[in-house]
Amino acid sequence: MMDKETLINHCLDALAKGEPIHEILARYPHEAATLQPILVVAESLAHLATDPTNEARIASRRAFLRQATTYQTRPALWQRLALWAASVALLILFAGGGLNMGG
Amino acid sequence: MLSDAELLRRARELDTDALAAIHDTYYQSLYRYVSFRISDRQTCEDLVSEVFMRPLTALHQRKAPTNNLRGWLFGVASHVVSDYFRQTYHNPNEPLNEQIVSQAPLPAEIAEKEVAIEKFRKAISTLTEDQQHVLALRFGENLPIHEIAHLLGKTEGAVKQLQARALAALARHLAPGMVK
Fold first, then answer.
1. CB contact under 8 A, A71 and B14
2. A50 touches chain B (CB under 8 A)
3. Is pLDDT of A1 > 80?
4. Of A68, A61, A98, A12, nearest to B166 (Cα)?
5. Could you tell me the pTM of the whole model?
6. Are A29 and A40 in contact (CB under 8 A)?
7. Are B64 and B21 contained in the same domain?
8. Core-most of B46, B51, B126, B151, by most CB within 10 Å?
9. For residue B66, what pLDDT is reported?
10. Do A52 and B141 make contact, defined as CB atoms within 8 angstroms?
11. Which of B41, B140, B180 sits opposite A49 (nearest CB)?
């Protein structure tokens, strides 16, 4: 005998294939009372999501690419740190060279 | 058309064409994912925009993953929605569904349908985060179980278990007394 979760998943697979709820329930008459609300809920869930408007899609795309542009022109933290470290190294190098020449 | 891996590689360089392609490919799916869990259209639009903004920061800071672009984006969407719920829980000023508060009187049938949808979403929000994520991918985005398993890095059995338990919990919530 199938456990309840397996049974529910069998019924959901059948529902996803387009089988009507009453036909699925007819295969499991002893569990029909329990399965029926679950399958009705599953069928209703398929209608919950909505599609976006074209205006929203365009506005989002524009904002996304505009934000990307600000990142393209601004170096990341690791790049700024690397630049800073290189500057310090160069400064030390030149300062050391200057001292040597002076000495 | 570029593969997800190639898109991600180019996106890591902040390549504009790759970023635009990612937006064009995933906007609709991510919107449907968010709208499965949130009714207000304006809020959905704002949150989906946020879903795209967060990865940009990660890409810029070189913290983006190197594969599973789709899984990454849906993961971000899940976090954005959770953060939104956390915020509205602490500061409860969530806008009402615009269709419900429309000035024009609604025909009773539409109003009833809207109320039923709200009831559904409220019930969904009582599920665990993982269960909500699975339901939104399965029923909002109509993804097959094996693909959800791949996105979440779980086994198909684990996803099926989450799905079955979530639906049983929802049915108990919406039709008490009928589901044991």
1. yes
2. yes
3. no
4. A12
5. 0.80
6. no
7. yes
8. B51
9. 82
10. no
11. B140
**pLDDT tier for residue B96 given thresholds of 50, 70 and 90:** very low
Position B164 confidence tier, pLDDT thresholds 50, 70, 90:
very high
Residue at B101 is within a domain: no
Residue B164: domain span: 107-174
Q: Who among B24, B32, B45 is closest to A56 (CB)? A: B45
Distance from CA of A94 to the nearest CA of B (A): 32
Q: Is residue B83 part of a domain?
A: yes
Which CATH number belongs to the domain containing residue B32 in this structure?
Answer: 1.10.1740.10
| pLDDT of B112 over the 90 cut | no
How many whole angstroms separate alpha carbon A92 and alpha carbon A72? 31
Q: What is the CATH number of the domain that holds B119?
A: 1.10.10.10
Examine the domain organization and report whether B26 and B57 are in the same domain: yes
User: Can you tell me the distance from the alpha carbon of A90 to that of A84, in angstroms, rounded to the nearest whole number?
Assistant: 10
Distance between CA atoms of A10 and A13, rounded to whole angstroms?
Answer: 5
How many CB atoms are located within 10 Å of the residue A23 CB? 9
Q: Which of B57, B90, B123 is the last residue of a domain?
A: B90
Please count the structural domains in chain B. 2
B72, B113: one domain:
no
Residue B97 lies in a domain: no
Kindly state whether residue B96 falls inside one of the protein's structural domains: no
**In the block, residue with structure tokens 């009928």:** B178
